[in-house]
Design brief:
It is built from 10 helices and 10 strands. The protein has 276 residues and is of the alpha/beta class. Helix 9 crosses helix 10 (255-273). It is elongated and about 70 Å long. The chain starts with a strand and ends with a helix. Bound molecules: ligand 9D3. Residues 94-96, 120, 123-124, 139-141, 143-148, 151 line the site of ligand 9D3.
Amino acid sequence: MRADILTIFPGFFRGPLEHGITRRACEMGLATIEVHDLREFTHDKHRTVDDRPFGGGEGMVLKPEPLFECLESLGLAPREERIAGRAKQSVILLSAQGQRFTQKVAAELAALDRIVLICGRYEGVDERVADFLADRELSIGDYVLSGGEMAAAVVIEAVTRLLPGALGNEASARQESFTAQAEKKKIEGADSTCGSGGLLDYPHYTRPAEFVGMNVPEVLLSGNHEEIRRWRHQRALEKTLRNRPDLLDGAQLSDEDNKLLAAIRERWAAQAESPD
Ligand code: 9D3
């Protein structure tokens, strides 16, 4: 896969690209990532990339010309070919107004030959970029960032680790078995957050078994694998109910799971009545 990043802060990407899985994927030749400085596609003395909004209002808007010119220089397939899927390429505008970037989108992008990530800045990007240049507009979540750079780094990492060969053999086998499981069970949006069955992952512990008075749950030291499996499933249920109750709607729950959830809710209600 080749990825191009269009930004006014090219230096931002030194960190993310020089570490971890992204660096490894580049070294292994699985990914080639190029960062383009939008100021190099300006022609005035001040290398202007932004301007005041038509119609008035706060802040500045990223000008279209440097973005169009930079994209032109990349030699992509025509936009219609990309949108129709005949060219395995996608030009993506990262903006707070975009569709949500999910694990499903990450998998779609990982299947392409080429992605281009356009990082917005200031109050926004001239809308002609979304309308005529980009193929899709993505946001990484409902919080305010100052620009698309952090989001681009997130997209790069999530996509890179899905490229065949990017993870070690063991990790990629685990990932594949998980994806297959999720597909078989038709779990919508089963992803990083979800372990098997569309729940959050169960808690993990490692040595020491006792750490300044905090103990690892006894059952994990017992060697009883059936009991460990049941304990993990229960704790996954409990954690999902506490932190992501929204996931329970799409999860695969047995009658026993539903009983367990009811019991947990009752326990919490009782605890709320007598808080000590
Ligand atoms: C509501 C007025 N503005 C908030 C002060 C809107 C706004 C403009 C520009 C909000 C964010 C931004 C800059 N953000 C991005 O470019 C961005 C982003 C984000 O803010 N959240 C999640 N994903 C992304 S991807 C790009």
